[in-house]
Design brief:
106 residues, single chain
Length: 106
Amino acid sequence: MNKEGERNMLLVYLERTHLFMILLRDLSAVFKDFLIKLCYSRKVVVVMDHAPYHISYKMQKFYAGNKNSLHVKYFPSYSPELNPAEIPWKEAKKWLERRCWNNKDG
């Protein structure tokens, strides 16, 4: 967690033969920027889980201030079977568990 109490995320993905790693420091800010671009000129319905950066006070204020173009719905708590994004996360976690990490650089 950073000093504001928000979680950081290490996003890792493979594209053809290259492994990319991105450290996302303020997930609420990243998510908010994504929603701003998504809602730029249209109305949007977003269905998401209860991740801390989705439900933070900062994001609740953002949702309320953009209720004309953004409608937020949440998956029920503890229902990964309803959230398609959970499948690749589960596989990524399994893959990471099977790796031996000697230090923070891998």
